[in-house]
Amino acid sequence: MIWQPFMLSLQVTIVASILILIFGLSIGIWLARKQFPGQIFVSTLLNLPLVLPPSVVGYFLLLVLGRGSPIKEWFGIDLLFTWQAGVIASAVVAFPLMVESTRAAIANVDPELEAAARTLGSTELEVLWRVTIPVAYRGILAGFGLSVARGLGEFGATLMVAGSIPGRTQTLPLAIYDAVQMQRYELANLMVLITTAIAFAVLWWVRYLESQQPQSQRQQHKKLQKERFNATHRRYSKATSQLFSRSRF
């Protein structure tokens, strides 16, 4: 019985993590790099799932996914009480952790590193992928790890939109609740132990990545300094060669 909720939790978490990585990374970079009117309002709105009770988040999702919603009425897609609804609930609840971690990691990148890359002729997109993200990637991965752990442990919103149907929508947290209700404490103890071990491993990995963040920035700084030196040396060598060639004639 334990493997069904475990595998379903794994399935839900993997799909939710992909959504979180794509949208959380994009929005986090956008918030860190763009200044626009209403930015505080947008940031506050995105972080609401962190502070709202899970039942409130679940209620909002019921309005979005349930009867009378555009998804149901316009497209005829019925997601309630399916494992896909559990994916959406997990992603929505964990999404702010990815956004805020990405935003903070990108904002803490030394502007001199990016300026040095621009002096070497890199475009803004090249600066982002060759300098900014390599320096900030440990902070980004830390946020991703926290999002995965939060999504894996989601209970309230998942219960409201996906229910607790054994073999279909019953994830590990929901199975623990049912086991306690039925006084099957040995089964509950085993599932709690598995969940705690996974959460501990993820948090340990996150703390390790955070401790390595300054070292990553120093390494990138040295790399760019070397590239600037090599570029300057090549320009100097080229200019010297041209001057020598002219002097011969």
UniProtKB/TrEMBL annotation:
Domain ABC transmembrane type-1: 6-204
UniProt GO molecular function: molybdate ion transmembrane transporter activity
Keywords: Cell membrane, Membrane, Molybdenum, Transmembrane, Transmembrane helix, Transport
Transmembrane segments: 6-32, 44-65, 80-99, 187-206
Membrane topology (UniProt): Multi-pass membrane protein
Highest taxon, organism lineage: Bacteria
Main location: membrane
CDD domains: TM_PBP2
Cellular compartment(s): Cell membrane
GO cellular component: plasma membrane
One Pfam family it belongs to: BPD_transp_1
Function per UniProt: Part of the binding-protein-dependent transport system for molybdenum; probably responsible for the translocation of the substrate across the membrane.
NCBIfam families registered for this protein in UniProt: ABC_perm1 (NF038017), modB_ABC (TIGR02141)
Family to which this protein belongs: Belongs to the binding-protein-dependent transport system permease family. CysTW subfamily.
Protein name: Molybdenum transport system permease
Species the sequence originates in: Chroogloeocystis siderophila 5.2 s.c.1
